Amino acid sequence: MADAQKKTFVVTRFDPDRDQVPKTQSYQVPCQPDWKILDALNFIKDHIDPTLSHRWSCRMAVCGSCGMMVDGEPKLTCKVPLSDYGDTLEIEPLANFPIIRDLVVDIDGFMEKLVSVKPWIVRAKERAVEEGTFRQTPAELEEFKSFSMCINCMLCYSACPVVANEPAFLGPAAIALGHRYNLDSRDEGDALRQQVFRGEGTVFACSYANECSEVCPKNVDPAAAVNQAKFRAVIDWATGFVVPRGRK
Amino acid sequence: MAPSKPGRTRTAAPVRPHQFPFGGRYAAYTLFDATGLLYLLVGFVALRVVWALGSGQAAWQEMLRQLGHPLYVAFHALCLVAVVFVAVRFFRLFPKAQPPRIGPLKPPPRPLIQAMLYAAWLAVTAGLALVLGGGLF
Amino acid sequence: MHRLLLRLEPLVWLLFGQGILIGTMLLTPWLLVVGLGVPLGLVPAEALAYDRAHALGSNPLGRLLLLGLVALPLWKGAHHLRSLSVDFGGGSRDAAVAALLYGLAILGSFAAVAAVIRL
After folding, report:
1. Is the pLDDT of residue A247 over 60?
2. Which chains have at least 3 CB atom pairs separated by less than 8 Å from chain B?
3. A5-105 has CATH 3.10.20.30 classification
């Protein structure tokens, strides 16, 4: 086994039963050279401090559970190698989310926004089983494929300066997923989603900082989705003058 | 990102990213937004100039004299830097904001869109600079 | 005000987008020649002699370009300053800030129309 190298982890701790505000706690961890950050956190929990709480699951960057701030940047801790960092790392819960405990954040706000954009195929009339499957060309799939790769890790929400300051903003992932369905040739729910995209959570609150796309670990490029969605919203707004339609 | 209903336990308030607004990549973004002040001011200065042009020769001569003041020159130099910065950042971000399809038409590949933007910028700048500077017409 | 802003956002975003795209393209030659070239003596002053400048400006295309040059940057400026206000914690005052800034852009745009008409 390779020699372990001691690294210091300065980790945010918060116990709502004991603490008024979050504080930090330092741990010395003997790290293997091939470890990811998550390996070190699990070592802390398994061998040093079993009270440390953090979310993780798949360990292979597909579930989106282990997002945290590492030295001030939102990262998937199962994906990022320790070798990218020096001897001291600062681990905090995801920015812009209320903190439930330690490194665990309350994601209910995001879930509400996600559901509001109806991230599923919406049809005026459901297709009967007898009619068979939908058919979609590779070109049609390509139009929305990158936006479908979102794993809901919420790193983009932690990076977005608008999310930090406008609580109602739908945010990168929710808009990207709604836009993904607007682009899907099987979907007929554009008009429903436009009401959400131009409501209180308005896509136009996005200031195109592009930070969401910079931090996305799955190359979803939510900034592209949000700004394409703005263009679609303008078309919807303009055609609304020509083709009046009732809105709920 | 607080939920609409409070959770079952007391939560600590969200923390904004520490690097915001002047650290890391945020610095360029904050600067990009801050150029808004220069655009607003240069628009109103241009309004003054056009208004002077419509007010007769004496007003125009006076305006040109004022434009020669070091403060005006420094302001316009700063605006030029800001405009170039805005163009470079915007041309990088603009291509991916285009819809994947408009009716049956697909947009050009993103690098080509970017090249077209730079070409248009160069052509408009050269053409209008020649006209304004007396090289054309 | 907040609901009015939500309804008008697509239009504001269009104007802001053109403020960046067309405004930037028009501002570059303007700054190079009118802002710097002539004042610094790099471009002959005769280029902006009154008769020539007025002839160029009062041409229909000239009026259109001058209108774009004056009005479009105001919308880019207003929108980005509003964004800056929000970024620095101004969510609660956003409606007031937006009304002020877009109001300035609207006034400036009307003044720009008046300025090019009276050329």
Report:
1. no
2. A, C
3. yes
